[in-house]
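Just curious: can you write whichever protein you like plus the matching structure tokens?

***
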Amino acid sequence: MKLYSKGQVIFFSTASALLVFFLLLGFGIIRGHSEKTEKIVSGGSQLSLQTNELKQDAVSPVSTDSPLEYTTEERENIRIYEALNKGVVNITTETLRYNWFLEPVPSEGGTGSGSIIDKRGYILTNYHVVKDAYKLYVNLYDGSQFIGKVIGKDRENDLAVVKFDPKGKELITVPFGDSKHLKVGQKVLAIGNPFGYDRTLTTGIVSGLGRPVRTSGSLIIQGMIQTDASINPGNSGGPLIDSLGRMIGINTMIYSPSGGSVGIGFAIPINTARRIVPDLIKYGHVNRGWINFYPVQIDQNIVRYGKLPVSKGILVSKVEKNSNAAKAGIRGGDINNPVQYGKSIIYFGGDIIIEIDGVKTETLADLFSALEDNKPGDTVAVVLMRGKRKMTVHVVLSKRPDDLQM
């Protein structure tokens, strides 16, 4: 029988404990939370969010009997769900409708999901979930309900920020990730809270990137993430999460030939939310740049009447003196020869804009999309047709007028 000294016993005991710790860490069953302050910047404004950070410092109750009962991937899924599901809320709304006597009466609205992004009660969700809300209720994982308020919304990206008072309740937040370096084939998880108490988890992969998707309001959201993870009814506004437990997208819609929850899902990249959330909280809308001119989307009737050199584009009907468009050299039409088209007055003879900031502008929706990620003071390249001559000018953007905010 071999004898060991006291020092050798302590050494081998410590080494064994460290070995077990790193094995557990490798299996992904050690986790926890720590608090951090995350700063996100939009334009010149900075916003500090009080968030949780996933931390590998506590044993997760993935398996109480045998750690070999689950596969490595299953442990990972369970770990992420247990860490983040309490940060996903159910949102229900009431809207106003008019009865036979033209009196406004409350009516049951829609439902969706949202991610708590700040411990003070800020929630990130979809615009279409809350757009017509007269009253809004936030339902947490434990069944508790709070009255919420929409403090900022952006129709162009289908995003909104809701605020509620947690009244001292400790909140779990869903941490922001980075959608810049996503790869097709990367594993993703979708968490939703469609019915208040029934939080769901589905898994899949990133099946496409950079997808332009047209919304029901005929706006185009650029750069959408496509996934085959099932999006259940009411999951709109919930987080799309990577394998490290970070939100890399906001689940928005699903294309399903069968009309069910299985099909092609689309999520808004989290970097879009990072860019606009500070503005939504500070201003209630996104502070975007604009080109000051009177645009007309050309169609075949306008092309034939004006004998235009292109079949698609934005006709510059009028340019105000000293506007940023005028200073850049963009020309409007002949104001001495107005033409009535439907209920509108068009001035022919002006430039036709076919591209802004690298984005083709065939429709008015394209015009808004081209300027969606630009701030007042930014300089953009504008490609236009002047007669049969193609040319490029550079415009310093002004602030988008309030009546054009969406």
